[in-house]
Design goal:
It is built from twelve helices and three strands. The protein is mostly helical. A three-stranded antiparallel β-sheet has the order 2-1-3.
Length: about 300
């Protein structure tokens, strides 16, 4: 009989040089993670500090007035919120069906060769600068599409044109996330559906899409958050450069929350010295941060609640 070999735990830890190198790698990774967290906390802290400073120094009645005129001390929040909602709703009406249809086609119908062609095209569309889409919405979408359908649409820009531009910008995001969700559905479900005689369309609608519903809903919510946070398209195509009266109709000029922040920040020293105009930028930013944070939390809860494990 051979004698049993006894192993010492220290012999399994490798050489001292290797252990030191792993400690360095662990330390660098931890420092990078801690730095990102600290930067995020500093940004949120500065945002909240100036937002609280604004809300304590401004008369609350000025937050519900006839329009957004920060240099005059008028900070009507409903003007920004309604414009943001209109642009976001229009963008989702454009992006959701087109992005979902593109995802379904690439996942369920396209051949590998066609998918290799379409995927880079969507990625290129996602890489187009938003300022380019803003000018496209102002110079083409508004005069050629919107004003040909709606005579009352403002010629210098409106919320419909801005919403369509944001929707085009959001299509690749919905398509990419939705395709990943559809591709994660096991092929065994497709094969079982085909085995009982179901057509391709029936399998896609009744089997694949319900199985990927958590990812699809998450894609929609993330795209909504992206549309709310878009700046340059709405700043250029919305029609209201720096100030705006309250407008309830999407055919009128509109100033979204991000566009209002961009217009206030563009004033540099002049804005800093104009009362609460500069601190209103941080207040709107904090409100926007709270909205997008809530949307991300909702998306996370939806994914966890309706995720199907196979």
């Amino acid at each position: 009989m051979t004698a049993a070999v006894k192993w010492d735990v220290s012999e399994l830890q490798g050489s001292p040089h290797r252990r030191n190198r792993e400690r360095w790698v662990k330390g660098v990774a931890f420092a990078a993670a801690l730095t990102s967290v600290l930067i995020s906390l500093l940004i949120i802290g500065s945002l909240l500090f100036e937002a609280v400073n604004f809300i304590t120094n401004v008369d609350l009645s000025r937050l519900w007035d006839r329009g957004w005129f920060p240099r005059r001390g008028v900070f009507d929040l409903k003007t920004l919120i309604v414009a943001t909602l209109w642009v976001t709703v229009i963008a989702m009406i454009v992006a959701a069906p087109l992005g979902m249809a593109a995802a379904v086609y690439m996942s369920e119908y396209a051949t590998p060769r066609v998918r290799k062609i379409l995927k880079p095209i969507l990625e290129v569309l996602a890489g187009i600068p938003s300022v380019v889409l803003g000018f496209f919405a102002l110079q083409f979408i508004n005069p050629t599409l919107v004003r040909s359908w709606i005579d009352d649409a403002n010629s210098s820009g409106n919320m419909i044109s801005a919403g369509i531009g944001v929707g085009i910008l959001t299509i690749p995001l919905i398509a990419s996330i939705s395709e990943d969700a559809l591709a994660a559905v096991p092929n065994a479900l497709r094969e079982a559906s085909a085995g009982i005689g179901a057509r391709k369309l029936t399998t896609t609608v009744a089997i694949v899409i319900p199985a990927a519903v958590s990812g699809l809903v998450a894609a929609f919510i993330i795209a909504t958050s992206r549309a709310i946070g878009e700046t340059m398209v709405v700043f250029i195509a919305g029609g209201a450069a720096a100030t705006a009266l309250f407008a309830g109709s999407p055919v009128d000029q509109g100033l979204t929350m991000t566009a209002a922040m961009a217009s206030v920040a563009a004033g540099s020293d002049e804005v800093v010295g104009s009362g609460e105009a500069f601190t209103s930028l941080f207040f709107v930013g904090a409100l926007l941060f709270a909205i997008t944070l809530c949307l991300n939390v909702i998306a996370d809860r939806v994914v966890k609640r309706y995720r199907l494990e196979y």
